[in-house]
């Protein structure tokens, strides 16, 4: 089924079901750090069950790009660690997330799957990293930019902690300009607080707030909902 064949009525019904199903999972407050942390603490017990299928395309694509390289990798927004088994053992991985309940599940995954290349998992604000300058060779940031209160600050921190010449891989949903998908995004935007992400997040909000060079850009499944951007730090 292609995007052009999705009936508008189905999209409306799906959006309404999402709102009803997850209404209690998110706070109605603004996207402050505390609100996001509270929201994802509620997601933690069911996160893998809900998000494995839609997120796996981006996780595999980002890991594929990262695995071309070697050295130290920072994953921002590691969540429950769904992507951790995908990284090559030649990469030494550090993961951060705002949610301690998510990280606890990530630690259990590391132990269960014997992921010896995962160096540490820490609770940390992506817009205020405690790492020094040029601490990592590369970073992956998947499904984070539409959630954080200040994407520009996150980008600035990434440029600071990744070494010159290093790589930053961003996977995110960006607003469509036209077509059925754009219509669906406008519907879902009504529920952005409930969903915990902004369906109308513009691609330009990344490009306008970074001095890094965009080396590769690729649309990903399902249905082209997500985009991977690969940047090189000057």
Oligomer: single chain
Spans where pLDDT lies below 50 across 5 or more residues: 1-6, 18-33, 46-50
Instruction: Look at the structure and give the mean pLDDT.
Output: 79
The largest sheet has its strands arranged as 3-2-1-4-5-7-6
Instruction: Give the CA-CA distance, first to last residue.
Output: 41 Å
Structure report:
Helices cover 38% and strands 22% of the residues. The chain has 8 helices and 7 strands, in the order αααββαββαβαααββ. The protein has a 7-stranded mixed β-sheet. A hairpin with a 5-residue loop joins strand 6 (213-220) and strand 7. Helix 1 (8-22) runs parallel beside helix 6.
How does the SSE layout of this entry go?
Elements lengths: L7 H15 L10 H11 L3 H20 L4 E6 L14 E7 L2 H13 L5 E6 L12 E7 L8 H11 E11 L6 H11 L2 H4 L8 H4 L5 E8 L5 E7 L2
Parallel strand pairs: 1-2, 1-4, 2-3, 4-5
Antiparallel strand pairs: 5-7, 6-7
Helix pairs in contact: 1-6
């Amino acid at each position: 089924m292609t995007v052009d064949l999705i009936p508008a009525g189905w999209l409306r019904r799906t959006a309404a079901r999402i709102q009803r199903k997850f209404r209690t999972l998110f706070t109605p407050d603004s996207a402050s750090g505390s609100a996001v942390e509270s929201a994802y603490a509620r997601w933690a017990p069911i996160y893998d069950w809900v998000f494995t299928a839609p997120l796996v395309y981006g996780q595999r694509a980002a890991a594929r790009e990262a695995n071309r390289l070697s050295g130290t990798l920072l994953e921002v927004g590691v969540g429950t660690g769904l992507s951790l088994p995908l990284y090559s053992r030649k990469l030494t991985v550090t993961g951060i997330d705002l949610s301690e309940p998510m990280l606890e599940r990530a630690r259990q995954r590391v132990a269960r799957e014997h992921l010896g290349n995962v160096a540490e998992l820490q609770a940390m604000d992506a817009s205020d990293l405690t790492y020094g300058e040029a601490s990592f060779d590369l970073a992956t940031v998947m499904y984070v930019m539409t959630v954080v209160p200040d994407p520009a600050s996150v980008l600035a921190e990434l440029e600071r902690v990744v070494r010159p010449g290093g790589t930053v891989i961003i996977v995110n949903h960006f607003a469509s300009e036209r077509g059925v998908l754009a219509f669906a995004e406008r519907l879902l935007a009504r529920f952005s607080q409930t969903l915990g992400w902004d369906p109308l997040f513009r691609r330009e909000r990344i490009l306008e707030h970074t001095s890094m060079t965009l080396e590769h850009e690729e649309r990903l499944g399902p249905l082209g909902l997500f985009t991977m951007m690969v940047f090189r730090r000057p």
